[in-house]
Amino acid sequence: MATESKKTEAPAANPKAQQSIGVRLVPAGDSDLPIFSNFARVHLSASGILVDFGFLEPAGLDALARTAKAGGKMPEAVNGRLAGRYALTPDALLALHQQLGQAIAGLRAGSKAKKEAGNAS
């Protein structure tokens, strides 16, 4: 059974009073298996936010791109497979936004470092 420990900011009524705490998530069932997704959609609901992750067949996406480029008739809808649906509270959505922003910044920094290393050679 895999466990993951991550430091996260605990939500607090006073933003200046936030503290960093360790959170250990223990998998249940197959929840520790990765879910592959190449499509995401966000839905607002009265109680929070629903995030659907799905998988669209890459060959089907390529065929759509070729049809669009050739000026052909596009289908009204494309079928995909729902990989997972997650209901998030507004606080959880804000935490996810912050963590995704940090991940994107890390990817950009890594890409920039690789580019600079390639130019130095």
Order of helices and strands: EEEEHEH
Strand order of the largest sheet: 3-4-5
What is the number of helical segments per DSSP (H or I, 4+ residues)? 2
- Percent helix, as a range, is 25-40%
What is the total tally of β strands?
Answer: 5
Contiguous uncertain segments of 5+ residues:
1-6
On the 0-100 scale, what is the average pLDDT? 84
Shape: extended
Report, as a whole number of angstroms, the end-to-end distance: 44 Å
Rg computed from alpha carbons, rounded to a whole number of angstroms: 20 Å
Kindly estimate the percentage of residues that lie in beta strands according to DSSP: 25-35%
The major sheet is characterized as: 3 strands, antiparallel
* Class from secondary-structure proportions: alpha+beta
Domain module count: 2
How does this structure look, described?
The structure is a single chain. By secondary structure, the protein is an alpha+beta fold. It folds into 2 domains: 1-7 and 17-88, no CATH class; 90-121. Helix content is 36%, strand content 29%. It has 2 helices and 5 strands; from the N terminus they run ββββαβα. It has helices spanning 58-69, 90-120; strands spanning 4-9, 20-25, 39-45, 48-55, 81-88. A 3-stranded antiparallel sheet has the order 3-4-5. A hairpin with a 2-residue loop joins strand 3 (39-45) and strand 4 (48-55). The longest helix has 31 residues, at 90-120. The chain is extended. Mean pLDDT is 84; it is low at 1-6.
